[in-house]
Amino acid sequence: MTKPEAQANTAMLLLWVYMPVKQEMLKLAEKYDLTLMQANALCVLDPDHAVPTNALSNNLSCDPSNITGIVERLVAAGYLERGDHPTDRRVKTISLTDKGRTLRAEFFRQTAQIVVPGLSALPAAEQRTFVKLLAKIRAGQ
Predict the structure, then answer these.
(1) What is the average pLDDT across 36-64?
(2) Contact at 8 Å (CB) between 79 and 40?
(3) How does strand 51-52 pair with strand 80-84?
(4) From the CB of residue 69, how many other CB atoms can be counted at a distance below 10 Å?
(5) pLDDT at residue 141 tops 70
(6) How far apart are CA 80 and CA 45, in angstroms?
(7) How far apart are CA 22 and CA 104, in angstroms?
(8) What whole-number distance in Å separates Cα of residue 109 and Cα of residue 86?
(9) CB burial class (10 A; 0-12, 13-18, 19+) of residue 13?
(10) Counting beta carbons within 10 angstroms of the beta carbon of residue 96, is it exposed (0 to 12), middle (13 to 18) or buried (19 or more)?
(11) pTM here?
């Protein structure tokens, strides 16, 4: 198998694994009257640090023009707050409020209950290897 074929196969398999997780995340987001992207935004934000808005856009692989609406909805719901960047007045930051940190923790608690078909059938050592490989892939972004 060539490298491009392996990459294509990997991408398709990752999508197959991701789809049940996405469906469960969508249900969870709807439970809190959020879109999937809004829920994802809460999950990718560091609960202890403010970040520039463009960093959230990058983390979500979202066009900067779309991030405004996502942030505005989360601010209006009390999950995020805007602030000023400490060294650049042109940059606005966003951070989780206490309410946002609580909901983020709830998302993580509930996503731990999501069962990915086939994953639970793997031996524990293979599951740990899979997690390590995913973390390695993510670190290479």
Answers:
(1) 91
(2) no
(3) unpaired
(4) 12
(5) no
(6) 10
(7) 16
(8) 32
(9) exposed
(10) buried
(11) 0.82
C-alpha 74/C-alpha 101 separation (Å) is 12
Structure tokens belonging to residue 16: 């197959």
Neighbours of 22 (CB within 10 A): 13
**């991408």: which residue's tokens?**
11
The whole-angstrom separation of Cα 139 and Cα 133 is 10
**Residue-wise pLDDT tens digits, 91-122:** 889 999 999 999 999 999 988 888 777 888 89
Q: How many CB atoms lie within 10 A of CB 113?
A: 8
CA 75, CA 112: separation in Å to the nearest integer? 26
Identity of the amino acid at 124:
A
Kindly state the helix (H) or strand (E) to which residue 75 belongs, with its residue range: helix 64-76
Residue at token pair 């923790």: 105
